[in-house]
Write a structure and sequence with these properties.
The chain is about 35% helix and about 20% strand. By secondary structure, the chain is α+β, with helices and mostly antiparallel strands. The protein is globular and about 80 Å long. The two termini are about 15 Å apart. The structure holds (2S)-amino(hydroxy)ethanoic acid and manganese (II) ion (2 copies).
């Protein structure tokens, strides 16, 4: 029988991680391989070693902390999440899954409960797209969807490539091909994450059992019009790149609202207007499109309809448009057997739960390519995330940890 998770320990680890932050005046910012993130890596490895876990790191910085089982040759069971953030984030997105994974392994270790398979808590490198514009770098590489040549062509805002940064940090690029996990190398994976929505809170549930994880398709759209004088150019004589972009963004919003999917979203989060002067008609606009769906077919339908509409808008407004696809990821349906286990555990523990679809993507989206995988959510206060206002009660994190520890122990003995 496993003890109840220690709320104070969870809180101390969350706050311990939060000390490594480049914007303490406004939320939490911890960008891949910047000083705060590198220091957080050192901290989390030390804390994992204090638990008696065996800590290693792979060629892209995924960290593995292993609790040995009685039959270590069997494929292991994983949990874990990420420690990097979006700019001015909260302190739970990602960190909750790493910390609760550590606490779950501590509970199992201290209970002396036998388990055949090794258990590992994983810190996946760069789940957020903040530095290199592509999400889930560590888990994507494990899934074989980020090759060395892809990493060579990922650049940050200073023009540094991912491989340059890895080399500077003494990672061995020859290990890149070995990052890939084959089917069967991992037995199962379960990630705990804050919900980043208000459904659990509104429903009064403590646990969300994730049935599907939406996958993102990300595009960079370049609209080229005619830069000209804001006062001297007649309204009927303009090729305004920004006005055209707005029409394209509003079309995306309309199509997303009309989409027949069970759960989909579309967001324009970044817009660059050139030259960006108050009395100049923009000649160039670059904007991002983040399109998500839990179903690949309806996502592709939406993308095709949007691209067609964008071309029509460009023609009508006599601007040029170029759409570059950054990634077009496949959604994941979580493993039904693990979902059933999670439901049974919640029922046994009399924890109110509901089934959820995850609008946010997670590393589990890619881990699920090479092993059976599932996720559990704990409530986000007011559904807020990617914001300094992000909050989850430690009691909820402890309850989530209890469920996580139990399912990991069961999976490690099957
Ligand atoms: O954007 C997201 O879905 C999150 O940051 N993983
Ligand atoms: Mn996030
Ligand atoms: Mn996250």
């Amino acid at each position: 029988m496993l003890e109840h998770a220690d709320e104070k320990r969870i809180e101390n680890w969350i706050d311990g991680m939060n000390a490594f932050n480049s914007t303490p005046e406004f939320g939490t910012t911890r960008i891949l391989f910047t000083e705060p993130e590198l220091k957080n890596r050192v901290y989390v490895k030390e804390e994992m070693e204090k638990l008696g876990l065996q800590v290693t790191e792979d060629g892209i910085g995924n960290i593995f902390a292993v609790l040995k089982g009685s039959q270590p040759a069997m494929a292991p069971v994983w949990t874990g999440s990420h420690i990097d953030t979006v700019p001015n984030a909260g302190k739970f997105d990602g960190m909750a899954g790493v910390v609760c994974g550590m606490e779950a392994l501590r509970l199992i270790k201290e209970s002396g409960a036998p388990h055949k398979r090794n258990l590992a808590v994983v810190v996946y490198t760069s789940e957020e797209p903040t530095r290199f514009g592509l999400s889930c770098l560590g888990s994507r590489a494990m899934a074989g969807e980020l090759k060395l040549e892809d990493a060579e062509n990922l650049y940050d805002s200073e023009g540094k490539s991912l491989t340059q940064v890895l080399t500077e940090l003494k990672y061995d690029l020859t290990e890149f091909p070995a990052l890939r996990k084959q089917q069967g190398e991992v037995h199962a994976a379960v990630e705990l994450h804050v919900e980043q929505n208000n459904r659990l809170e509104k429903g009064g549930e403590t646990i969300g059992i994730v049935k599907k994880i939406c996958a993102p398709s990300n595009y960079t759209v370049l609209v080229t019009g005619c830069q000209s004088h804001a006062g001297g150019t007649d309204m009927t004589d303009r090729r305004d790149a920004y006005a055209a972009s707005c029409e394209m963004a509003l079309l995306l919003e309309k199509l997303a609202k009309e989409c027949r999917s069970e759960y989909n979203t579309a967001t324009v989060g970044q817009v660059e207007v050139i030259p960006g002067a108050i009395n100049v008609i923009p000649g160039l606009v670059r904007f991002s499109a983040d399109i998500r769906d839990c179903n690949m077919e309806t996502k592709q339908e939406l993308i095709a309809a949007w691209k067609e509409g964008v071309e029509k808008i460009a023609g009508k407004r006599q601007v040029k448009v170029a759409i570059t696809e950054e990634n077009n990821d496949i959604p994941l349906t979580c493993d039904e057997e693990i979902v059933a286990r999670l439901q049974k555990i919640c029922e046994e523990k009399k924890l109110p739960f509901s089934f959820q679809i995850s609008g946010p993507y997670h590393d589990t989206l890619f881990v699920g390519r090479f092993t059976k995988a599932a996720m559990l959510f704990v409530p986000s206060k007011n559904g807020i995330s990617h914001s300094p206002e992000e909050w989850t009660d430690y009691a909820a994190l402890a309850a989530g940890t209890d469920v996580l520890a139990q399912v990991l122990l069961e999976l490690a003995n099957e």
